[in-house]
Specification:
- The complex is a heterodimer.
- Chain A contains 15 helices and 19 strands.
- By secondary structure, chain A is α/β, with parallel strands linked by helices.
- In chain A, helix 6 packs parallel to helix 8.
- Chain A is globular, with a radius of gyration of 21 Å.
- Chain B is globular.
- By secondary structure, chain B is an alpha/beta fold.
- The longest helix of chain B is centred in the middle third of the chain and has 13 residues.
- The chains are: A alpha/beta, B alpha/beta.
- Chains A and B meet through helix 2, helix 3, strand 5, helix 5 and helix 11 of A and helix 4, helix 7 and helix 8 of B.
Chain lengths: 473, 206
Amino acid sequence: MPPRTMYEKIWDAHVVREEPGQPAIIYIDRHLVHEATSAQAFAGLRAAGRKVRRPDLTFATMDHSIPTKNRHLPLADDVAAAQFAALEKNCRDFDILLFDTRSPQQGIVHVIGPELGLTQPGLTIVCGDSHTATHGAFGVLAFGIGTSEVEHVLATQCLSQFRSKTMLVRVEGKRAPGVTAKDIILAIIGKIGIGGGTGHVIEYAGEAIRALSMEGRMTVCNMSIEGGARAGMVSPDETTFAYLEGRPFTPRGKDFQAAVDHWKSVATDAGAKHDTLVEFHAPDIAPQVTWGTNPGMVTDITGRVPDPNSFKSDVDRRAAESALEYMALKPGTKIEDIAVDQVFIGSCTNSRIEDLRAAARVAAGKKVSASLKAALVVPGSMQVKAQAEKEGLDKIFRAAGFEWRDAGCSMCLAMNDDVLPSGERCASTSNRNFEGRQGKGGRTHLVSPVMAAAAAIEGHFVDVRGWAVDQSE
Amino acid sequence: MKPFTKHTGLVAPMDRVNVDTDQIVPKQFIKWVTREGYGRVLFYDWRYRDGEVPNPDFVLNKPRYAGATVLLARANFGCGSSREHAPWAIHGYGFRAIIAPSYADIFYNNCFKNGILPVTLPDAQVDELFRKTEQTEGYRVTVDLETQTVTDDSGFRIPFQVDPFRRDCLLNGWDDIGLTLRFEDQISEYERRQKPGATQYSPVKQ
């Protein structure tokens, strides 16, 4: 057999039926479900008199609208409460395992999948959420789907899909201390553009990717959709296997060894061909800060807000003008001179234990700037929260003046009470700086957890590379 | 699924690149548990000022575009969140077809599931349509999926490409799930062969 990419191997292993000129029917190994995109799918299933084909491969949690404080009280938001009630009923009626608001395993769907060991190399995973690519960090074909497709997977455990093209993004060399996985992916999106990966599955490779922890690889894969790619993947290796060992859904003992042997075979073969190649040199990557209203509008911390007239095409120039107007920024302003009102550390991009450890090292013994209106740390799952508390990270954050919350999507998209007020500016570790994403009129700058923590301390963006803290991962 | 064969209607221009689904339907409306009612909240933050007062500067609020059913857009339309609420809102407002140089993958796919035809045309031809729409009040086009053409009554005619399978599905309004379930035997055979499963080895408390 000719050498194959990881994507091709996983695709080939999951084809139920493939005919020329038609989309293939591919089998889905894990279907992750949350409250915001599933109610209409279950309603459609009921209306057609259909059942969930594989409830044992379907797992649900509550994350998008969930409050991050006062969970012992009834939910004040009736609309969100109705959506939670619908998910509870759907999981009960169709016998689906649900990690609800009271579960110690509750959390953001893309944090708990890997944490529970549900995410394993070689699988196909889908979810009604565009950040499903996160699971690709384990050598998984994982992508976001719409609600009609959620219904399709519930009914058939399959999806009708066309083969994608593949893009290899190779990041060679070593990152500088203070430069994180978030900076790598923002730099990639800045280069390929937010539509650059459309129609592609991205495979991330190279020394700088292999050197990342699983948390870092998840951050990179998570934002593939921000480059237009539905899926992003990293070949599994010893880092992957070590992360998975001992997790609730990971095989044990002899079965684990057998699983590892199989997982090793998932990695892309030497000599396999990708449709597109993009190369980066990690030492050239500086901490990144977005200045505009999409993740591709990004620059180095040492940079300045660009002049819209520097863009070649008319549409790009107008997009930059509109972005600067929304962001209330003047061309030429030094990024380090931009003051922030709020800091948000959380989201499916950057809320895992390593993210919190790194941010805590920056915040330790310091105080959040008096100019800040709020600084929030929202762990990605209740298990991450528990682990962080075991390590005393909550005390470090609280002592510095951060609020310490329960797990959920929170201010990444502000479906709960964690809303960025109009006109305020936020240094955020989330994934989207779209207009109104964190709250109508709110202004989002995407950064890494260490850059967010440093901005909280200084009250404006600052180059964390100059800070004397341990920035190893 | 709703079929689409041919549609003639007023064109409204959305002259921005990278329009994301957060703008098409903001987050507060994705808490609803229905598929209906999103037409009112399409482009909510752009379309309304506080108190849901229509913003007269927003393009869809201009009287000349009232009743538009064809949305003319720029590159990478529908990027970001996978929320199918976006095509539900576009359809609920009354749009039946979109014309743009490119679309985000998930949004493009979601359109076909909801009886909306997303037509892809080269930049130059999209530019031409923007000029025509802005210059001619009441500018209408016909989008025909059978002949795969966009035409107007002044002799403008552009062919477009669409995947033949997606075209057949949309022309016939086929139910995707029904299509897949024709091959249920093969799904069962796959399950017998591959034994997909998720075994829990240590307890997790629900």
